[in-house]
Structure formats: structure tokens, C-alpha cells
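[step 3/7] fold_predict: job queued, chain A
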Amino acid sequence: MKLALICTEKLPSPAIRGGAIQTMIDGVANYLRTNHDLTVFSVTDPELPEEEIREDIHYIRVPANHYVTEICEKLKESHYDLIHVFNRPVNIPEYWRATPNSRFILGLHNEMMHESKITTALGRQVIDIVSGITTVSDYIKNTVVRRFPKAEEKIHVVYSGVNLEEYPPVWSTNGQQIRAAARRQYDLENRKVILFAGRLSKNKGPHVLINAMRGILNKHPDAMLVIAGGKWFSDNRMNSYIRSLYRLSWPLRSHIKFTKFVPIDKMPELFLAADLFVCSSQWEEPLARVHYEAMAAGLPVITTNRGGNSEVLLHKFNGWLINQYQSPKAFAKAIDFLLSNPEFADWIARNGREYIEQDFQFSHTAERLEEVYQSTVASDLNSQEEAVGRFS
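[step 4/7] structure written:
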């Protein structure tokens, strides 16, 4: 069938600027294109043409300032059997009016059905229009159902994943070679490396890890905290919060390294250079994909027991969950334990890698999406006909 995936207007596809949605689409596209005539819509970028075909995937990119309008025009030009709209439920009625004979899937990576993002009336309209809803975690599913109980019958949890070819485990020969080169590149030799990777924002919590470093260094004077990320994915501009991070880290500057934005194709090297990975999220994390990447690389993972994180991280089995997420001491204690008990750290790291191999590769994500798409096509058109009558 003719399938269209519509990204948000923030970042281009393929994921040359990063982005969880774009990265997931990159991962599943090669699987989906074998069964479908696939088109991916995203925003324009200076490094990418407005339109191209790569490996049988049609990419169409439009300017951010006329994003919805231009995509609507493109949708009118070519009929799509199924259109999967990511993280922008508010745009679905406009897309539907442009091509009312197409079926729609809403994909949610964040709380985009929250009252601060969409009105109750518009939310109900969207739920009536779409044939299905995918969410990246049970946590996101539950936030939707609490506000819109009618949506439950349409929601499918589709966890993201990784490409294991890009993540040889650190204990493999290839992983060891990449690790050695990356540690030389980042001047991390003879260090115990603690990695944070994510946007530098307060809700991601890097300030908590910086504050934890004093306690860590008391027991591990060779520890190094590597903070990888920028203000907004590839945007490395300063703001008041990032300046505060640099000021906070200054007394410990020989033990804290800021890499700024690291391109997605270089992230596996950085994971392999580390000894453990820490996600210090202070908000209800939908389910950050860095967890999958760290486990794939064979790192022990410490994360906060917030949002969807605990759906893929089991405490003291394939990770370590922090309940006192605002406490630098809690992070210092967990990091100290794993650094001081390398055999246990290795055990949970290997459990994490096996967990990814069994259920969280992009092939698994594509299979789950395919099930949603096929069930949508096979279902009757009653709900959409009802929507046509109600909103036309």
C-alpha cells in the first residue's frame, strides 16, 4: 500500500540533526519499504534536497513556516492509503480534510494529548478521525486514556529500538577496538567514564549529575563525567541554563567534559567509550531512546524511575532505578556501587544487551508497526465514515 510518514516540523529526516522520531523512522524505513510504497515528509534542511528518493524511499521536505499547508498540498497530489502522523495530533484534521479517503494513524512520542497541547474538543475529533494510535510506552498510552477513555481501543504500544549492527557490545573484539579509539579521541584513557547523553535542559537533569560528582570523586578520583548534547539537538548555542552548567562544573573541570552535540552516527563510539550510562531525567520521561542505545552497547544503565523508563529497565537486573531523582547523593551512591562492583555491573550490562537482542531491535519495532498498519487496513471503515459525516 502507499504509506506516508509525517514527521514534526522541528527536525529533518533522515536524522542528520538527531531526534527520537527521525531516528526511529530511519530504523524502520528499510523494513517498511519492502512491503509498502513509502514516503517520508519532514522539514527542509540546508544539507538536504527538497525532494529525493533514497533506497526506494521517497523523501519530501517542506519549509517549517508553511509546514502543514504545504504538506496538505502534497497530500492532495497523490493518494496515500495510510498516513502516520507523528506527535502532531492538532494537524490531523487539516491533513484529513486534504485527503479524506486516506486512513490515519497518530504516533505519540510525548504527551501531545495533554490539555496544554490540545483542547478537549479537538482531541475528541482527532480520536474519531484516526484508525489507530501508537505510543512509545505504556506511560504515554495511560496519559491519553486518562483524558480520553474512548481512545483506549485504538491505542497500540510500539516500543522503539536500535540497529545492533551499529552497536557492537563493548566486550566484543570490534567493540573493544572502537572503545580504545574513542577513548583516545576524547582523552578518556585511564578514566572511569560516566556518560550523560541528551539535550541540555533542566528536565534532563545534568546539573544533578554535576552535583553528584564531588561524592563520586571521593571514592573514584579517576572518574570523568562526559556530558554529550546541546541546547536543542544540533543547536549548540548557549542559554542561561547551559551557562549555569559550565559555572557549576568549573571547580571540577578536570573531571567533567562537555562534548556538545554529537552526530547520531558517532554516538555508538561515545557509548562504547563509557563505563556506565546515566539518564538523570527530572520529568516524567516518555521513554528515552538512549536507554536502548546504552543497553545495546553493553553499558550498565542508571536511570530515574520516572515516566516510561521502568518499562524497559528492571531494577538490579538490566539497570538501576533511582527513586530520589532530585538527589545528587542518590546518583552518587548508585554510580559508586556499580563502579565498585564491576562483576555485577557487567552482569546487568549483559542482561541489557540480551534484552535488546530479544525484543528491541528496529526489526521488532517495524514488525509492531506492520501489525498496526495491517489491522487498520483489515478493519472496517465504520469509524471513519462516522467521522466523515460528523466533520464534513
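[step 5/7] annotate
The chain is about 40% helix and 15% strand.
The longest helix spans residues 342-359.
exit 0
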